[in-house]
Amino acid sequence: MAFRSFILPFLCSLTAANAVTVYNQLPLGSQSTATDSASLASYTGSAAYNPTVLNPPPIPNPAPGTQFAINLMPTADLVPGISIEAPSSFFGLSIEMSVATQVLGLNGSFINVPFLNLMSLIIERAGEVQVRVGGNTQDYATLVGSTVDGKAIEKQSIDPNNPTATPTIIFTEELLYMLSNISSLANVKWFLGVPFNDTQNIHLEIVESGERILGDTLLGFQVGNEPDLYAQHQHRPSTYAPSDYTTEFGQWRDAWQNDANIPVKNNMIGPSLSLANWALEDVWNTGFLTDYQTQLSALSVEKYPADNCAALYAGLGTPVVPQDVYAEYLTHYSGVNIVKPMLNSTMIAQQQGKPFIMFETNSASCGGFAGVSNSFGIALWALDYGLQMVFSNFTHALVHVGGQNVYYNPFTPPPTNQSTFHQWSVGPIFYPLMIMPEILGKSNTSQVVDLWPNSGSDQTPGYAIYENNQLARVALFNYMTDPTGAMAYTANISMGGGETGQQQTVPASVKVKYLLADSVSQLWNITWANQTLGGQFEADGRLIGEEQIETVQCDTTANVCPIRVPAPGFALVMMTDDSASGSEPTGTMTFATTALTKTANTATIDQSVLETSNGHSGKDRIIGGSTSKGSSGAGKAAGITPSVTVLVAMLAGAGMFMKVFSR
Ligand SMILES: *[C@@H]1O[C@H](CO)[C@@H](O)[C@H](O)[C@H]1NC(C)=O
Ligand SMILES: *[C@@H]1O[C@H](CO)[C@@H](O)[C@H](O)[C@H]1NC(C)=O
Ligand SMILES: *[C@@H]1O[C@H](CO)[C@@H](O)[C@H](O)[C@H]1NC(C)=O
Ligand SMILES: *[C@@H]1O[C@H](CO)[C@@H](O)[C@H](O)[C@H]1NC(C)=O
Ligand SMILES: *[C@@H]1O[C@H](CO)[C@@H](O)[C@H](O)[C@H]1NC(C)=O
Ligand SMILES: *[C@@H]1O[C@H](CO)[C@@H](O)[C@H](O)[C@H]1NC(C)=O
Ligand SMILES: *[C@@H]1O[C@H](CO)[C@@H](O)[C@H](O)[C@H]1NC(C)=O
Ligand SMILES: *[C@@H]1O[C@H](CO)[C@@H](O)[C@H](O)[C@H]1NC(C)=O
Ligand SMILES: *[C@@H]1O[C@H](CO)[C@@H](O)[C@H](O)[C@H]1NC(C)=O
Ligand SMILES: *[C@@H]1O[C@H](CO)[C@@H](O)[C@H](O)[C@H]1NC(C)=O
């Protein structure tokens, strides 16, 4: 207690976002808040299922225009300030190490099928997905030969009221085998983190085992996690400074170089600042970049635009009221302001020839905000923020996944005791992960420019995307919610002209895909080109519904393609046939579920219900034999809950019980 009374005033004095991550899974029911506005029958009380629906922010006064022109250069070389080339797999995931066995699977032979399916949705668009397993827990994680109960990860419980307490976790090589086995099924690449708590006793075991087990699927190791918070969290003396971090990084570098069991010497990643207490320049000024030029494979940062820590921990002041901050996300300025402190560093990274990675981000640390972080509005925000990072020359951005006790998850497995009758819940922020590679295309040559259309309205941002120097796509946002339809806008896209005298006109027609919901505050049933991952406990990781791509006729004489964007909504405009085919998914590899672990009613399971749900590509799949609860007539007729389909598949060594459908 003395400890807390010492540390809390110090924490309160901080104005910057405090990126404390909440690790331990609080008991179900302990997270209900006074803001709950509805009670769903299935509501368990965990933040991940909080049913709060906020009011959409009012239309600004004066209202933005609803008719405006966007004139685009036909090639990237004519666009001043355009970004460097971004990879299709720009967006990836960051998974808190302590929840890895909830999200990924239990061990190398027990992998969560919905996770594989969700990764496949990204991979069929991006070619790969980059996933970081780490977080604050990595700093104290110890690789051991075995655990008492045989689990891949064991975690000691901590005081949930102490924001500075970091649980120590122990894990076995089984965790690494699980990652490796996932990569053999879906093209997932991994980042791991080293235990940086102790530079007197450097533990390189995770690097040795990681390299041996993961091989080419291992992208690199994070060395230090938010070191600018170490002093504040009492993990280092209060004097801990950027120069101390640089010195410790060097101690690790030296041990690494001298370890004969580590074949790869140049995949260290840092400094992963939270930007709460230090600026990146504070680290650059210590000689970090020149000292470790050879060993650094990427530069990293971890930034949340806000935090909800006061709602979780006593002594941090009045908790934020989510409704009060909602509008701060539903504006183009949000992403623009988040990246500002990093722009000097993305230029420095270019000069150094290093990728610059947003290693961990989401709407707000300490779990996010109810009704904000899990709303359709945050899907628009994340796409806009993501494109802003691309425009600002970031290389990748990893969206954080927490446990049951956060609002901001891209996806959440059901609570363990509900896994036999519930499926996963896919949050709105998953859709941007799937859509970004469609926006960027598959070529890894995408260059992006922020257009600031509509006289620079923050409510109607837009970006143009060029691939191989050619105009490929246009991304248009509408943050406003207006059920009357009056605030839907039409953007007149034209090409060429301008001061350069380029004569090039729009094609006869363009294809458009929409990301839609009725309101920014809608929580579930968001659609991308009419396909959805459904509602709470409804997702097995495969899209449902028929894909619908609009064709918009352009006026080639007037050189105008009029694109309507609903309020709210996002539109992706494919400016050429190539850019349309270049971003379409290649056909989904889906992982069906023939290995039933437990079922609610095994006696009457109708195998055909499962079979008909298997193997459809995202494109072709219709609701017919869905595995979603309540949506299959056949299942109902048989008197069972169709969602008894399994959460997990067994991939035991002897053979694959899990069918892999590839098309
Ligand atoms: C799951 O566990 C929680 C907490 O122990 C309990 O409140 C809840 O009723 C359980 N649900 C089911 C379906 O068993
Ligand atoms: C958009 O294009 C339409 C059809 O070409 C035209 O009537 C309208 O004036 C244009 N609006 C703007 C703001 O350019
Ligand atoms: C993996 O987990 C499953 C389910 O708990 C268990 O049956 C199996 O024995 C585990 N396998 C290993 C190798 O630990
Ligand atoms: C999966 O992981 C287990 C360790 O649990 C390992 O024995 C097995 O060989 C792996 N399977 C594949 C296909 O890599
Ligand atoms: C670092 O963490 C490990 C694992 O929790 C622990 O055993 C060790 O004592 C810690 N070292 C320091 C200096 O805190
Ligand atoms: C960019 O960072 C470098 C290295 O820390 C520093 O010298 C320079 O002043 C910074 N420039 C700006 C505009 O912040
Ligand atoms: C991104 O990099 C390009 C090429 O160096 C540069 O022209 C542009 O200004 C950079 N963008 C930002 C926002 O810093
Ligand atoms: C883009 O990059 C990814 C990841 O490195 C790679 O798998 C893919 O083949 C690349 N695509 C092209 C067209 O080069
Ligand atoms: C989502 O859509 C399905 C099918 O239209 C419907 O049954 C379900 O009630 C919807 N869920 C929500 C939360 O709106
Ligand atoms: C959208 O998907 C639904 C199934 O979810 C389907 O019934 C409907 O016809 C689709 N709409 C269009 C326009 O394709």
UniProtKB/TrEMBL annotation:
Transmembrane region(s):
637-658
* Segments for region (Disordered): 611-638
Q: Which InterPro entries match?
A: GH, GH79_Enzymes, GlcAase_C
Q: Which range is the signal sequence, renumbered to this chain?
A: 1-19
Q: Which UniProt keywords apply?
A: Membrane, Signal, Transmembrane, Transmembrane helix
Pfam families, per this entry? Glyco_hydro_79C
Q: Which Gene3D superfamilies match?
A: Glycosidases (3.20.20.80)
Q: What are the Low complexity biased-composition ranges?
A: 623-638
- Signal as a keyword of this entry, yes or no, is yes
Is Transport among the key words of this record? no
The record places domain Beta-glucuronidase C-terminal at 462-572
Q: What is this protein called?
A: Beta-glucuronidase C-terminal domain-containing protein
Protein source organism: Hermanssonia centrifuga
